[in-house]
Design goal:
Elements (H helix, E strand, L loop, with lengths): L9 E8 L3 H11 L3 E5 L3 E5 L5 E6 L13 E8 L3 H14 L4 E4 L3 E7 L5 E7 L7 E2 L2 E2 L8 H5 L16 E8 L4 H10 L3 E6 L3 E5 L7 E4 L15 E8 L3 H13 L4 E4 L2 E5 L5 E5 L1
Parallel strand pairs: 1-4, 5-8, 11-14, 15-18
Antiparallel strand pairs: 1-15, 2-3, 3-4, 5-11, 6-7, 7-8, 9-10, 12-13, 13-14, 16-17, 17-18
Length: 283
């Protein structure tokens, strides 16, 4: 649908920190069906197509468990290509005895589960954009119950779930932040996103190219929440992929104009939102 490839800017990759790398690899391979693209003693890059990594795991030195009531990862969201794939993973998770939540967001159907360290994962499929309802510049979203009876009609018992399809992408990321006013300025004036939904005074959903959201931010861990320790389980960083160098340089200029920190590292730029969430800017 064009929301996760150029020329649209999109979230291409997420890096998370875990306590036990081997335990996490087993979960992401055996339960979720990722493959390993590259691996070191403390990191692994995971792939669905054998070419590109959309998710990396790393085990920091002196790692500590996930800290509550902090900023950082709320969840990262894996976007499946179609409804039958989502139905098949429901059957797979039930057969594996994996507990999960669910929701119908109007624009999508979603499952929610946690990895062994408590990092939350959304697995979802989008409804076609023609089914989304826009009120001027805001898209309708909800947290309605998921209709499993209807969804499971699309399961394919003859071709059960075995692994993540090659077409799987990183759909979006949702973050805990400490406040919303400066956060909105950073993502809109700095990164060039549009606010496409406001959830009261507690959350914002932002996107490029009229997607329902590439990034969500919320204050559900409390206004003024502190950043977690650097060696804590949770988010290390996420990557925004720009169409070309000109588009990226414009964003770097915009970020500097609003006073955001921008660093240059290994052929890409790095910035931090007002709550300290690290974002890599690539092309």
């Amino acid at each position: 649908m064009g929301f996760h490839n150029k020329p649209t800017t999109f979230v291409g990759h997420v890096r998370i920190k875990v306590e036990n790398l081997q335990r996490s690899i087993k979960f992401y391979q055996d339960v979720l069906g990722f493959d390993i693209l590259e691996q070191t003693s403390s990191t692994v890059k995971l792939t669905t197509d054998g070419k590109t990594s959309i998710l990396s795991l790393e085990q920091p030195e002196d790692v500590i468990p996930k800290q509550g009531r902090t900023t950082g990862l709320y969840h990262f969201a894996i976007l499946l290509p179609d409804q039958s794939t989502l139905a098949n993973i429901v059957v797979h998770l039930v057969n594996k005895g994996i507990r999960f939540g669910s929701s119908d967001h109007l624009v999508s159907e979603a499952l929610y589960l946690k990895d062994p360290d408590g990092n939350e994962i959304e697995i979802y499929r989008d409804r076609t954009p023609s089914e989304w309802n826009w009120n001027v510049d805001e898209v309708d979203m909800a947290v309605d119950p998921l209709d499993f009876e209807s969804l499971l009609k699309h399961a394919t018992p003859d071709t059960p779930w075995k692994r993540m399809p090659a077409e799987t992408v990183m759909g979006h990321i949702h973050l805990h932040v400490s406040e919303l006013q400066k956060t909105e300025e950073f993502y809109v004036k700095g990164l060039g996103m549009d606010v496409v939904n406001r959830f009261g005074e507690q959350a914002l959903f932002l996107s490029y190219g009229k997607y329902h959201h590439h990034v969500g931010v919320n204050t559900w861990n409390g206004v003024g929440a502190k950043a977690p320790a650097k060696n804590s389980v949770g988010l290390e960083s996420y990557t925004l992929v720009f169409d070309n160098e000109g588009a990226r340089k414009q964003v770097v200029t915009n970020l500097k104009q609003i006073g955001a920190e921008v660093l240059e590292e290994d052929n890409h730029f790095v910035t931090f939102d007002p709550s300290g969430n690290r974002i890599e800017l690539t092309i």
